[in-house]
Amino acid sequence: MISKSQIKLITGLQQKKYRDKSGLFVAEGPKVIRELINEGLNLHLLFATDTIDSFPENTELISKNELQKISFLKTANTALAVFEIPQEKEIKETGLVLVLDAVRDPGNLGTIIRLCDWFGIKQLVCSIDTVDCYNPKVVQSTMGSIARVQVNYLKLEEFIDNSAMPVYGAVMDGDSVYSRQLPSEGILVMGNEANGISSAVEQLLDYRITIPRFGDIQATESLNVATATAIMLSEFRRVTGR
Amino acid sequence: MISKSQIKLITGLQQKKYRDKSGLFVAEGPKVIRELINEGLNLHLLFATDTIDSFPENTELISKNELQKISFLKTANTALAVFEIPQEKEIKETGLVLVLDAVRDPGNLGTIIRLCDWFGIKQLVCSIDTVDCYNPKVVQSTMGSIARVQVNYLKLEEFIDNSAMPVYGAVMDGDSVYSRQLPSEGILVMGNEANGISSAVEQLLDYRITIPRFGDIQATESLNVATATAIMLSEFRRVTGR
Questions:
Q1: Is there a contact between B234 and A238 if contact means CB atoms under 8 Å apart?
Q2: Of the residues A40, A63, A84, which one is the last residue of a structural domain?
Q3: Chain B residues in contact with chain A using a Cβ-Cβ cutoff of 8 Å
Q4: Are residues A17 and A42 in the same domain?
Q5: Do A212 and A131 reside in the same domain of the chain?
Q6: Is A15 a domain residue?
Q7: Out of A221, A237, A241, whose CB is closest to B144?
Q8: From A122, which residue of chain B is nearest by alpha-carbon distance?
Q9: Do A221 and B35 touch (CB under 8 A)?
Q10: What is the pLDDT of residue A242?
Q11: In the prediction, which pLDDT does A112 show?
Q12: What is residue B180's predicted lDDT score, i.e. its pLDDT?
């Protein structure tokens, strides 16, 4: 059985203001939930429609109808959990730090967090107006990677200004990323879906880099920010290894 | 004014069987529609809620309510067009040919078509069970690129068997794509979101290639097929240029 106050709490967590207030977020599906538990996140509530392999013993069994009521998905999975949002840690001046300037699409942020996990990027800095990483759609599309990547929301100008690391930014008219010597430590900035990097941040870049277009140069479309990030991170890692 | 039979036609085009029957598909939004017109696709119907820059004179003006009625989007854009599906051309044994084995997600296929356009991949071969490229969600997420990439739906085993080109496939346990010499002409196979390349197709690969993981090797998650395709195409183009 799920109580009324639990339903109210969980459905509220769709909104950022209730996540901020309660310090909690929702994850759905056994795979994602298992990854978050394995990574040591604190579990607050856990519901499932059936006994699930390697789930804690105190998992509360509820009906499919009850799960659908609290699920953020069109078709609920078999489990839903509420976790505590981990405490924000300080950024360290080490390794490759990915910076996102006003990325708005939850699916894009989720994909980018998954890419960070793949490429061993431990620190992701987001501008204040980037979509919240505990948005349920983001959590879902990270597939559990969110527990392995530290995400900080900061004023980008301040953060970049105070950093001693070289600052690379993905722009439309920079040097080819294939021809440039890339460092193993530094900051890589990726911009907003429609407008790219904001002009205030662009002024702080040390190096402007671009993924060359090999297709029709008349075409107006740019790459999606998640696929562009995939290519950029691949280039940094290819060149510098671990 | 939009007629009842037009509404019936357009809403029917959400389904593949009606697209196949009529040879028509829907595109929404001035930007996508303009790109498709510029690429020479035959326009069948064009509706807009207002006069739109560089749109043909015979654009039919309709109300926002009327547009919302025929739109496939939650919130309709300002224009909707019906185009003829171009005739399928034969595949040529030239350049880099991308092959998709059972990619099911419309967003992934759309992103991959956009990547083909960026990297100058002119030919995309999809298995019969890959999502239809004229699915409205695919058309929308290609952002117009679909007019510049030839897409064929074929039996993959037959196609690969009959090709003289070298066949590369993205697998989890192959050689690092960074260390391998890549050709300027060949076939690159990317697999299904959950199951990768089917075993029948995997047997036909000449080279098994992998994007190395730099993060925690314990983590179970793989890359999304669209981001993996981005990295693979970037590697082929980086090495071989045009």
A1: no
A2: A84
A3: 35, 107, 111, 114-121, 143-145, 148, 178, 211-216, 219-221, 223-224, 226-228, 230-231, 234-235, 237-238, 241-242
A4: yes
A5: yes
A6: yes
A7: A221
A8: B215
A9: yes
A10: 43
A11: 97
A12: 78
Within a domain: B47: yes
Let me know whether A182 and A80 are in one domain: no
- The answer to whether residues A191 and A151 belong to one domain is yes
Q: What's the CATH code of the domain at B147?
A: 3.40.1280.10
Quick one: three-class SS letters along A120-161?
A: CCCEEEEECCCCCCCCHHHHHHHCCHHHHCEEEEECHHHHHH
Is the entire prediction scored with pTM above 0.95?
Answer: no
Q: Find the domain containing B225 and state its range.
A: 96-240
Which residues, 6+ apart, have CB-to-CB distance to B221 below 8 Å? A35, A114, A117, A118, A143, A144, A145
Q: Walk along chain A (242 residues) and give the pLDDT tens digit of each residue.
A: 899 999 999 999 999 999 999 999 999 999 999 999 999 999 999 999 998 888 998 899 999 999 999 999 989 999 999 999 999 899 999 999 999 999 999 999 999 999 999 999 999 999 999 999 999 999 999 988 999 999 999 999 999 999 999 999 999 999 999 987 899 999 999 999 999 999 999 999 999 999 999 877 666 578 999 999 999 999 999 876 54
Packing angle, helices A225-240 and A106-118, rounded to 10: 10
A215 vs B144: CB contact, 8 Å cut-off? no
The two tokens of residue A213 are: 């277009």
Same domain? For B39 and B123 the reply is: no
Domain count across chain B: 2
**B112 part of a folded domain:** yes
* Six token digits for residue B209: 């290639």
Q: Which residues of B touch A231 (CB under 8 A)?
A: 230-231, 234
Which of chain A's residues have a Cβ under 8 Å away from the Cβ of B118?
Answer: 211, 213-215, 221, 223
**One domain, residues B193 and B135:** yes
| Amino acid identity, position A209 | I
Is B229 in contact with B187 (CB distance < 8 Å)? no
Residue B193 lies in a domain: yes
> Are the beta carbons of B215 and A143 separated by less than 8 Å?
no
> And the tokens for B91?
């595949």
d(CA B188, CA A115): 21
Classify strands A60-61 and A123-127 as parallel, antiparallel or unpaired: unpaired
**Chain B nearest CA to A215, separation (Å):** 4
Question: Per-residue pLDDT tens for B185-238?
Answer: 999 999 999 999 999 999 999 999 999 998 776 665 789 999 999 999 999 998
Q: Are residues A127 and A227 in the same domain?
A: yes
Considering A29, A57, A84, which residue would you say is the last residue of a domain? A84
User: What's the DSSP call for residue B67?
Assistant: H
Beta carbons of B117 and A216 less than 8 Å apart: yes
Beta pairing partners, A25? A83
Same domain flag for B68 and B161: no
CB pairs under 8 A between A and B: 111
